Every structure is written in C-alpha cells, then in structure tokens.
Amino acid sequence: MDVKAAVAFAPSQPLSIETVQLEGPKSGEVLVEIKATGVCHTDAYTLSGADPEGLFPAILGHEGAGVVMEVGDEVKSVKVGDRVIPLYTPECRQCEYCLSGKTNLCQAIRITQGKGLMPDGTSRFSLNGQMIHHYMGTSTFSNYIVLPEIAVAKIREDAPFDKVCLIGCGVTTGIGAVINTAKVEPGANVVVFGLGGVGLNVIQAAKMVGANMIIGVDLNSKKRELAEKFGMTHFVNPSEVEGDLVPYLVDLTKGGADYTFECIGNIKVMRQALECCHKGWGVSVIVGVAGAGQEISTRPFQLVTGRVWKGTAFGGAKGRTDVPKIVDWYMNGKINIDDLVNKIMPIEQVNEAFDLMHKGEVIRTVLTF
Ligand code: NAD
Ligand code: DAO
Ligand code: ZN
C-alpha cells in the first residue's frame, strides 16, 4: 500500500514528506495506522548523524499511538480496531530476559531491530524500489507501520492519541525511572537534573510516590514554573550557584539526596548527580543518553562509600504490561500529560517541530496525520 511518511534520506538533512510503499503484515505482525507521534531528542540525535547505530534512509519516530488496521496469522493479543502504542522495547514474555523478572530489555527481536529491519530480516518500507529502514522498530513518522505483535501495547478505546502517544517514550521513561528503577519511597529527597519532557515525568512520579524534597536543576530558569506545577519543591539554576554545585545540593538535602536522576545526557552532570547522593545509600539513575563514545567517571571511593550508579531504558517498563496502566493513570487524572504537549501540527511540519525542539521552546510537539 502507499503510505505518507517523513523520510530521513541522509544525516543532517531536513526530512522529506514522501509517498512510500509499505508491505502488509506477515505472521505474528500487525498493521497500525499512526494517528499521532511525539518528536523526541532521540529522533534528532539519530538524524544528526551522531548515533553510531543510525541508518539511512530511514523513517524516524518512536513516540506514537494509533489503531490496528489488519492482523497477520497467529496474532492473538490484539484485533482490528484496537488502539495501541508501538513499543521500541518489546515484551515477548518468552525470552530469557523477559522470564528473568530482572529487566525490561526483551531481546526477542533485538538483532533485526538494531539493523532497521523486521524480525524476518526484511524491511517493509520502500520508495520506488529503494529499501528504507525501520527505526527503533517503530517508525512513527509514517501514517501506517507494520509491527510484530510483541511490540504493541493495547490501550483503552477512549484514550486521545495526541496525548497518550507520549507514553510511548518520555512519560513512561520518567515515571518508570522513579517507580521501577529507583523505587523511590515516601519521604525520600530527590534531585532531578534536566526539566524537559523526561525530567518533568520524574518529578510527577516522585510527587506521586510521596517524596519529600523534589529539587529540580536546570540551566534554563524558564523551566521552573511548569516543574513546580508538576510537583518540584525547590529549583536550582547551576549558573546562579556560587561555587561547586555538588556541596550546594548536599547542604540543601542535609547530607545528600536519597535519589538523583540525570535527564540531560551530559556526562559531567552524571558525575554531579552521583556525587550529590547521600553517603551510604544514595542512588543515582542515568536516564539521559550521552553522545557516542563518551564515558562517565568518578572516584571509585564514591561507590565504596555506598552510593549506587544505575541506568534505565524506557523506565524499566515492560511495555505490553505497564503502558496500558499508565494510560489509565492519565485517563483517571493521576498524571498530567496535557501540559507537556505545547504544539500539535500536521506531519508536513515535521522540520518545524525539530526546530522548535532545538530552540528549547517546547517540551513536546505532537505531529498528526
Ligand atoms: P530535553 O532537552 O527536553 O530536556 C533537557 C533539559 O536539560 C532542558 O530543560 C535543558 O535546559 C536542561 N539542561 C541542558 N544542559 C543542562 C545542564 N548542563 N545542567 C542543567 N540542565 C541542563 O530532553 P528530554 O526529552 O527531557 O530527554 C532527556 C534525555 O533523556 C535525553 O538525553 C534523551 O535522549 C534521554 N531519553 C532517555 C530515555 C531512556 O530510555 N533512557 C528515553 C527517552 C529519552
Ligand atoms: O536491548 O540492547 C538492548 C537495547 C534496548 C534499547 C533501549 C533504548 C534505550 C533508550 C534510548 C532512548 C529512547 C528514546
Ligand atoms: Zn522477551
């Protein structure tokens, strides 16, 4: 079938809206009509050419929501008409990783997904006979996509696509980092570095679980007002702190934070986030994705004396199990997504959406088809 997609032909080039050919679902796969998709920094990172796994030409996008239009043989968990969120971290419930109970990093389709292909080793997208790669197993910048059944989360019928699409990445990552990865307990003191789409979700989850101090750190003081709305209790702009940020935060938390979250992707900040943790028990979670080839460092004595360094992908969430619950939380008013969506635009304005993101003027732009 012919589909409408924003194609990335080469690194650092604007995306081009094209009519692309898409092959239908095979056994165990579904065809999904994408209704809305967020534009995230990870799409921009790959488009920039800095992503060592980035492949071109490709159809980017990984924060989408849509409707199942067709199912292949053997598909059991979804049917035509179901609303779904595509999962860049699938959940097969059968592989060693899924069965471990210790991780959300299902490996069932990892190898082909990393090569921009479907599990049978082919791409379903082509343009005038030229193969186009899938991206993160999702490619939500296309109005129709084909996905393995294990990479879709079925969600409720009344969920609005242009809000719950963010549950496909930023919302789940931030909330899951708090609940699944750090397991923040009531009364804990928390520091969140970076108050973008991910950091704001860390803040709202920290508030939800009953954290005491929720300190937000951002170089952009314009982020303060919205972060307070999400539950931030204290704001720190590092450029306004006299002296070193780490002792300042240790003083503010009276000995160090119980939990810190790096939601920027800056390796210097990752070190600060670890070192402002409380001696003996503080846990620091790396959420931000650093540039290719970069390395983190600290003095090993920081770990010897009880601080713990962790990381999280998709907030440790198991997509088919956890994503429908997070949609329910939004629909029941338990979490705020509306204030994260600053602009809704048609897919034709995808390059404008990237510009807005680079200027730091929006938390998220959502594209519709
Ligand atoms: P964003 O750009 O919207 O937010 C980053 C914030 O950090 C901005 O408010 C910016 O002003 C602030 N900032 C930048 N440099 C800073 C510094 N040195 N000190 C303090 N504040 C600083 O980004 P986002 O969408 O919230 O994503 C955050 C990070 O999380 C990105 O690296 C993204 O790739 C990553 N991410 C990771 C996962 C995962 O599964 N681990 C999922 C989604 C996104
Ligand atoms: O299983 O080896 C693996 C890789 C899983 C990829 C997880 C993605 C990590 C987060 C990247 C940013 C998401 C937008
Ligand atoms: Zn699995």
Automatic annotation (TrEMBL):
Supply one GO BP term. Answer: formaldehyde catabolic process
Q: Which SMART domains match?
A: PKS_ER (SM00829)
Q: Which branch of life, at top level?
A: Bacteria
The reaction(s) annotated as catalysed by this protein in its Swiss-Prot or TrEMBL entry are:
a primary alcohol + NAD(+) = an aldehyde + NADH + H(+); a secondary alcohol + NAD(+) = a ketone + NADH + H(+); S-(hydroxymethyl)glutathione + NAD(+) = S-formylglutathione + NADH + H(+); S-nitrosoglutathione + NADH + H(+) = S-(hydroxysulfenamide)glutathione + NAD(+)
Q: EC number(s) in its UniProt entry?
A: 1.1.1.284
In terms of PROSITE patterns, this protein maps to: ADH_ZINC (PS00059)
Q: Listed GO cellular component terms?
A: cytosol
Keywords recorded for this protein, A-Z:
Metal-binding, NAD, Oxidoreductase, Zinc
Where are the bilayer-spanning segments? none
Q: What does this protein do?
A: Has high formaldehyde dehydrogenase activity in the presence of glutathione and catalyzes the oxidation of normal alcohols in a reaction that is not GSH-dependent. In addition, hemithiolacetals other than those formed from GSH, including omega-thiol fatty acids, also are substrates. Also acts as a S-nitroso-glutathione reductase by catalyzing the NADH-dependent reduction of S-nitrosoglutathione.
- Give the record's family classification: Belongs to the zinc-containing alcohol dehydrogenase family. Class-III subfamily.
NCBIfam families per the UniProt record, alphabetical: adh_III_F_hyde
PANTHER family recorded for this chain?
ALCOHOL DEHYDROGENASE, ALCOHOL DEHYDROGENASE CLASS-3
Q: What is this protein called?
A: S-(hydroxymethyl)glutathione dehydrogenase
Give the originating organism: Merismopedia glauca CCAP 1448/3
